[in-house]
Amino acid sequence: MKKENFLWTSSKTGLLGGAIAIFICLLGMVEIFNKRYVIDELLPLGIFLLLATAFATGFIASRRAQEQFSESQPVYNLITGALGGAIVGILLMVLIIATDQINLRNVFLNASPTLVSILTFGRGLSGVWIMAVIGVAFGFFGGAFLIVPEKYRNPILRSLLWSFLLALFSGLFRVVLINQGSVFEAIAKFLFGTTGLSLFGAILIFASILFISMLSSSKGSSVRQRITQLPKRNQVILRVVVIALIVYIAIGLPQVSGPFIAQVIVILGLYTLMGLGLNITLGFAGLLDLGFVAFYAIGAYTVGLLTSYGQFGLQHISFWLAAPIAVLVAMLFGAFLGLPVLGVRGDYLAIATLGFGEIVRLLAGSDFLSPYFGGPRGIIGIQKPCLGFLESFIKVDTPQVCNGIEFGGPKEIYYIAVISAILIAFIAWRLRESRLGRAWMAIREDEDVAEALGINLIQTKLLAYMLGAAFAGLGGAIFSTLVGSIFSSSMQLIVSINVVALLVVGGMGSIPGVVVGTIALIGLPELLREVSEYRFLLYGIALIGMMLSKPEGLWPSQAVLRELHHEVPIPETGSSLAPEVATPE
Amino acid sequence: MRTSITERLTDLAVRAVLWGFRLLIVLLVVGGTIMTVRAGKYSSEQWIDFVVFGISQGSIYALIALGYTMVYGILRMINFAHGEIFMSGAFSAYFLATWLNNSGFSGRNPAISLIIAILFAMLMSTGIALLVERIAYRRLRGAPRLVPLISAIGASYFLQYTARGLFGPGVYAFPGVSSLEGEWSIFGIGILKVQVVVAAAAFVMMGILYSIVMFTKVGKAMRAVSENKDVAALMGIDVNRIIVTTFGVGAAMAGAAGVLYALIFRQVGFFMGFVPGIKAFTAAVLGGIGNIPGAMVGGIVLGVVESLGPALFLDGIGIPRPYQLKDAIAYTMLVMILLFRPSGILGERLTTKKA
Q1: How much is the pTM?
Q2: What Å distances lie between residue A87 and A20, A25, A52, A125, A417, CA to CA?
Q3: Is residue A110 one of the residues assigned to a domain?
């Protein structure tokens, strides 16, 4: 093997890191993220990203050089790390000067004076050296981090990560804690700033997580191993307790959160529900359905037509009656569209279903069908669900008064979504263990073998497809009542892609994976307004990254894991019971 | 062989639904055509306009479709990000063309500046495609089929929203070339110059590509790899290099198509790649995926049908504003081909078995 100069190796890493840093700047991430603080008034998120890039570059540069350079000496680690970081810094310097001198804005929208002022900390060109110094310093830290023995390195990294996540979601925790009252309020105000952690909070949280993880790692065995060592009875009890805890949190969450959080969690509930539906189609039976949104639209429009008091309402029945009808209609359409198309296999099926989804959207939005579906103006005036009686079942012109409990806001509708999701999870779980579920998985693994074993391909696939469609319809039904109106423009392909992406990230075929994926892909961007700007960019990265490094997902189902790695796995970190927070790469 | 009653019922249902679809489409096409022709709402000049527009747009689809079909032929993979490669070509050309326009260069020599813009677009989109291949696809070559497809979907979103982040969400006006404005009169019928030039340029490109694939050593190697990778490797062909070349050539075609598309529609935006991408895939399937002449034929057929369709099939049966459903016609064609003739017009590969 050709041996490269170790300085050149680390420079290459530095160039790559610098390119990434410049990319981050030009995308406008630095500018937008800088409105949010990781540590209040001290460290904004945008700058933090660049520091992290320099740090990671230093670390990787140093590690790569170490592989080249057989005798590992700490000095070399420091030098190569600093070199990598320095190149990142210098490239950023070039960016600053270029932005300041040439008008890059004709091409790159974000190469603005604001960017220069952020990168130079408001000093203009005279502060151009700061980035280089920071680059060298953090690259050096990165190199130095490699010298730290592995025993300490992982806990440090883990606690940094957790503190960072806490800082990102400090808004959520803060609101929840403050709503709890006096003592919690004081704690919240001590730990959190207006955005991000306070300086003391950051130090305290970092230190305590570090302490805990050092303690647990010194015992040697992971949580999972310890759980499997427990007697069977206790394992079952533990499982029940954890599930009960999750259900308790799921039910209690809207009570302690503000209206904004409620809006977020109802979306989470909705996507969990749809994810569970597609999990049957894609995760169990391996049918990639990119036209999922078609059934979502069908469900939404059915409820709209049946309950709206607006112009296009045909009937005015209660949501409780309309939702099952919507599910049924979506299922019928699933059968109708699925029957012919399921003979087509694999990636062709994906494209064909994508075609269906687009056709449904175009038809719903066209002038041709607008007398029935309202075209681009959509259906408005969809009545909220009401526990009690509506006065009239035939079409009315005005909203009706609900004699009973009205599910008016997102908080209430959240419960409908969660209960539906739990129901679907239960159905999916029971189906997975059934004969049908095993037939699905056989088809997913190998259609020809499955057919040879006497499984009727069309029938079995059709059932998976119809179930997926039915649950998509339910998602659409709840969505329509949540928003109170439907527009054909909200039935974009992106809804299908969202659901596919959350399945992929969570782990195809895994029921808890759906929840993890939803939290990671839908919850994170919803909670972080700044991130939501880059949501689809991050989806893209997440999809590619997952396929490259962890095609089984963050919380894989055991069967998929075995298939992909050809061995019985023992995950290194995390447990199958305690919810693990997803960290998208 | 024993078959249960439910199996026979599903079989029957499948056939019934398929025949229903067939009947519906035939009725729509035949009935719509007869009624439109009887109504006589469109003059013959309008029809010719539709056809010419269809051919020029179809030739763009054909150019993009080449990339799909070549990559599919070699890797059996749908390169979902191909539409975004097309978009990046259009964007690069937009920036260069604007610069040339402002400096007054393209006013003086429009043909040269157009060629420069096309070459630049080809270069940029090739570079981006190779990067995507290197990062997102190469390591997934042996993986189950859905894995690279999902990665490609990810790459597609990444490129789309990178463009949005870098260049902004707006739609930009592509600078027009003054000497391409106006009409040429052929046999007394006015035909837009742009459309003729675009179609001609596309045909030239396709000709070049076809001769590369058929008559050069690299082309021979490409065909060999597409036939059988292992045997090709045994014959001393660097399979990896051929795969990369295929991606590059396909991307160059898509980049050129991006410029031509921008010339016709005069606008570029980050989202512009999606719909042409799907349509070009339709064209590739229509012609028989993996088949290069098929992609060209498929593109033209799709372009013409899509251009004629709204007026010819839908207007007659009283659908208001039928052009709104132009895309729906293309998607319907896609689904119908996948259902009824997955081998396409010229292809012999089957979606259900070999694919």
Answers
A1: 0.86
A2: 12, 16, 14, 19, 50
A3: yes
